[in-house]
Amino acid sequence: MARPEGNKKREEREESEFNERLVAVNRVAKVVKGGRRFGFAALVVVGDGRGRIGHGHAKAREVPDAIKKATEQAKRNMIRVALREGRTIHHDVFGHYGAGRVQLRTAPPGTGIIAGGPLRAVFEAIGIQDIVAKAIGSNNPYNMVNAAFEAFKIMESPRSVANRRGKKVSDIVSNRDVALKGKAAEAPEAEAAEE
Question: How high is the mean pLDDT of the chain?
Answer without folding.
Answer: 83
